[in-house]
Amino acid sequence: MRALVINCTLKPSPQPSNTEALAATVIAALKGHGAEVDVVRAVDLNLKPGVATDMGDGDDWPGVHEKLLAAQILVVASPTWLGRPSSVAQRVLERMDAMLGETDDEGRPVAYNRVAGVLVTGNEDGAHHVISEISGGLADIGYTIPGQAWTYWHLGPGPGPDFLDDERGHDWSVSTGRAMASNLVHAARALAAMPLPAPPS
Fold first, then answer.
1. 19 contacts 160 by C-beta, under 8 angstroms
2. Cα dihedral 134, 139, 142, 144 in deg (nearest 10)
3. Among residues 74, 85, 41, which one has the least CA distance to residue 60?
4. Which tens digit of pLDDT belongs to each residue from 1-59?
5. What is the pLDDT of residues 149-162, one digit of tens each?
6. Sorted alphabetically, which InterPro entries does this protein's record hold (predicted)?
7. Among 31, 23, 124, which residue's Cα sits nearest to residue 83?
8. N or C: which end of the chain has fewer CB within 10 A?
9. Residue 125, CA atoms < 13 Å, CB-side half-sphere
10. Predicted confidence band at 201 (pLDDT cuts at 50, 70, 90)?
11. 4 and 38 in contact (C-beta within 8 Å)?
């Protein structure tokens, strides 16, 4: 089983990413269940604006698209900015919109029988809003969102330290991330054993 984690931090490599640090705990849990995990740091790529799978010369999205189709599990990881998903996360969802028009050999949307979850960091509240926005988009595209397929970390309203700067709340976030990983893996296995059929015509 393969999993893909798309880190939607605004910080290009090699800058430290709080979102990457929390995602690492979920990646470890996924690997503990036997999943092979690929990681994409979207900000490092040239992801052109648009809603097509390939926006032409220099567009790096086709490579990400290939990884999406190779993975049974997707985790979209985003920081919170202004109470919303990062602009990079929005770009990723917009590019994934093209998958709505793609089907497999049995006429199913290509996101069918794949599961997805969301991971959020930020030093202000708004995590549940970000989770709902990203989860809603992924469900529209065709992903199955299991119960409690998310984790997050924040220290409440107002400015404050980041995930990498403060140990408070880590135990809860990591424990919730382990539950997230377990639910994603077991839901993916259930769909592999009994796949969703193509939508009725």
1. no
2. 110
3. 41
4. 999 999 999 999 999 999 999 999 999 999 999 999 999 999 999 999 999 999 999 99
5. 999 998 877 777 88
6. Flavoprotein-like_sf, FMN_Rdtase-like_dom
7. 124
8. C
9. 3
10. confident
11. yes
DSSP calls for the chain: -EEEEEE--SPPTTS--HHHHHHHHHHHHHHHTT-EEEEEEGGGS---SSSSS--STT--HHHHHHHHHH-SEEEEEEEEETTEE-HHHHHHHHHHGGGGG-B-TTS-BTTTT-EEEEEEE-SSS-HHHHHHHHHHHHHHHT-B--TT-EEEE---SSS---GGG--TTHHHHHHHHHHHHHHHHHHHHHHHHSPPPPPP-
pLDDT band at 93 (very low <50, low <70, confident <90, very high): very high
